[in-house]
Amino acid sequence: xxxLCTQNLSFRYTDKPVLEDISFGLDRAEIVAxxxxxxxxxxxxxxxxxxxxxxxxxxxxxxxxDTRQWTRRExxxxxxxxxxxxxxxxxxxxxxxxxxxxxxYRGSLAFETRADYRIAREAMAQTDCLSxxxxxxxxxxxxxxQRVLIARALAQEPKILLLDESTxxxxxxxxxxxxxxxxxxxRDRHLTVIFVTHDVNLASQNADQxxxxxxxxxxxxxxxxxxxxxxxxKEVYDVDVGIDLNPHDGSTRVTLLT
Amino acid sequence: MLCxxxxxxxxxxxxxxxxxxxxxxxxxxNVSGTSEEELILFSVxxxxxxxxxxxxxxxxxxxxxxxxxxxNPLADPYVLGISGGSALGxxxxxxxxxxxxxxxxxxxxxxxxxxxxxxxxxxAGGSRGVLLDNSLLLAGVVVNAFFSAAILFALSIVxxxxxxxxxxxxxxxxxxxxxxxxxGAALCCAACFVLLYAQARKLNLIVQGEETALQLxxxxxxxxxxxxxxxxxxxxxxxxxAGIIGFIxxxxxxxxxxxxxxxxxxxxxxxxLFGASxxxxxxxxxxxVLSPAELPVGVITALCGAPYFIxxxxxxxxx
Lengths: 258, 319
Known about the structure:
Chain A is α/β, with parallel strands linked by helices and 258 residues long. In chain A, 33% of the residues lie in helices and 26% in strands. Chain A is globular. In chain B, α4 (82-96) runs parallel beside α6, α12 packs across α13 (264-288) and α13 crosses α14.
């Protein structure tokens, strides 16, 4: 049974289609990067996968079950998303924010158990948040906030983790830490990771598969070497690029020719 | 909440020893007779204190929930125009002479409040059935403005005796409660509190944004409708009995957030308790400062509330 599968997925906010006839399937836990120009439907695709939105036509199946048939709590226990930003109107502590990731596991009335604290603490350790656990979320820097939001998503103990440009505010050290954490979780806990990014080299170095979206349609899907070709880049992004292999890890490397 | 009210009872009365004797006398059954003092104590002051507590708690709870739902720290229970609709209902009641029936005026005020909420829902929700916070807020402002105009119109055509009665009510008045009414209001307030408290964790998540709440497993739309209905009910009850008492709904949640943080599981009960005691104190001031004359309690809360608010805004350094 496939972990995630979309069948002829289409979506529109108004009359203009945002996503058109997207079909793909993931049979085992992989790291997938979604790339494409602005407005190509990347974020919308993530929202369809975690059932924030429902398809106009077609289906999204998670573990073989249509997202329409999942309850909110079930979805939240299976799919977690790290949003681009989160509003901070009222002053919550960073740890409280992470603890919210445990909501789908508890009743509305219950207070957190010891196990919840352990899981939240572990998530915060993994994203290097423990030093500011007791500070207020709205007083943190953008990068620190992002790490808190990542920790919250990890505290949900998802099987599928969705990332929407989640590395943009991270400094180099935390970017490296986070990417190796993702690979480790993917390997050890069979976590499927789907991340949206504009950094094609980051995608190439870290993803098993690339999904290239263009004008709401699936332009290409496959290994980085298959997708990142000079022809595709010219066609989709209208840029000239040089393609070679990164001497450090052998991944496909894209260089903008300006 | 009850023991809290009882606590305040002791602090308020002029002769604490007599009060204590009377209270204990009643509790243990050996009533010494119906002296004049006891009569004042139990049939005038006690209902009023209990009532102030209920209204204070209701308005504070309303403030907490509306601020969370609209994700706007300046929201209060009146933000959706509930006060306007309720006031209009009460004025109609006073003018047509409904005050001669048991619960006549409060009932009409209550109808006015509920009609307003319904109207706001219709204006804001539109045909799509989606509740966007901004449209809700805007609809509230519009409806409120309309009712204010209607109230002014009504005030300009009634005679002077009714005018006094109405304007006192508009400024907030806790003196018209009878024990029977208090019992109903208390029951309603308690039921609403239980309903709201059951949603406390969801409120925490909704404050993070509706999409986030959805992604973390909250059925946002259903929760939101439930919360709006319960909060409107609790506000309508407070307004229909006690008139418009401003600032409690804004102030108390903020103060409690400073003390207890933003977790609604602590915020809701603490706001209810503190709101109750705050209004009891304010009402006591209102009837003692100029005694034997009485001030509307709304004057006291606004006099305390406005400076506090300025302080809050300056301290935060933002509007």
